[in-house]
Write a structure and sequence with these properties.
Layout (H helix, E strand, L loop, with lengths): L1 H18 L3 E5 L10 E5 L6 H7 L6 E5 L1 H5 L3 H7 L3 E2 L8 H10 L3 E4 L17 H9 L3 E7 L5 E2 L2 E2 L7 E6 L11 H22 L21 H19 L1
Parallel strand pairs: 1-9, 2-5, 2-6, 3-4, 3-5
Antiparallel strand pairs: 6-9, 7-8
Helix pairs in contact: 5-6, 6-7
Length: 246
């Protein structure tokens, strides 16, 4: 079913982007291998980031690791399953790591947002090591990606989808090639530094001034929370969520 649904959704995203007048700039897509498995690791600033990454993936289909709650949703669930995305916690008991490893070894591309949540500071937060471990175990390249501009359409606490001519940038960096015996912590830190450099480039070259704007990071003159403030907000949100569940 994914052979039918993925191209249809991909086409719908392209059509919607053009209809909304979005100016999507993609650079470095030559770093996406034309065949074989690969792990794409992108920063996370918006709920729309998976679509931006998919557009930048040089025609390769990307299977993202996603929260189980999206698969349980009555609207999102059928689409997530139809697109063959990978639940982080599967009801069948299979782990996301095993499913992603199998996909990589069969030549598919897996997408990971290793920050695990949207970065409210609009900088690259500390990354989890799963992507590095996956790439090392499967013997596939680890590809850094920076996405910028999608957050102006839809991010935590803000949604304004109609913004004609809004620029969106997708920068794809040169792949890292971790080996199975490499330290995943070291590989992950190298990936984080590379992703932040890509994001710095995207922010520096962005055609709109973000001075004193909510969507610009603090260190570039915007009013977004600092990384420390953003981490505190995330901690409060997680505590509230755990309290609601219990």
């Amino acid at each position: 079913m994914g052979d039918v649904i993925y191209p249809a959704v991909f086409l719908a995203v392209r059509v919607a982007s053009r209809a909304l007048g979005l100016r999507i700039g993609i650079r470095g897509d030559v770093n996406i291998p034309s065949t074989g498995g690969a792990v794409i690791v992108a920063n996370h600033v918006s709920y729309l980031d998976p679509f931006a990454v998919a557009l930048g993936a040089a025609g390769r289909r990307v299977r993202f690791l996603a929260l189980q709650e999206l698969f349980d949703h009555r609207v999102c669930g059928p689409m997530m399953r139809g697109l063959r995305q990978i639940p982080i916690r599967s009801a069948s008991g299979a782990t996301a790591y095993d499913a992603a490893t199998d996909a990589l070894k069969s030549g598919e591309v897996v997408g990971v947002f290793a920050e695990a949540t949207i970065a409210q500071s609009f900088t690259v937060q500390p990354l989890r090591t799963g992507a590095a471990r996956l790439a090392g175990a499967a013997g596939v390249p680890l590809i850094p990606v920076a996405v910028w501009g999608t957050h102006r359409l839809w991010t935590k606490g803000r949604r304004e989808l109609i913004q004609p001519l809004l620029p969106i940038t997708v920068l794809i960096g040169e792949p890292l090639r971790p080996r199975s015996h490499d330290d995943p912590e070291e590989v992950t830190e190298q990936m984080r530094v590379t992703m932040q450099a890509l994001l710095d480039c995207a922010q520096r070259e962005y055609p709109c001034s973000g001075t004193e704007k909510w969507w610009q990071p603090e260190h570039l003159g915007g009013t977004a929370p600092s990384p420390e403030e953003a981490a505190a907000r995330d901690a409060d949100e997680n505590a509230t969520r755990r309290g609601q569940v219990s």
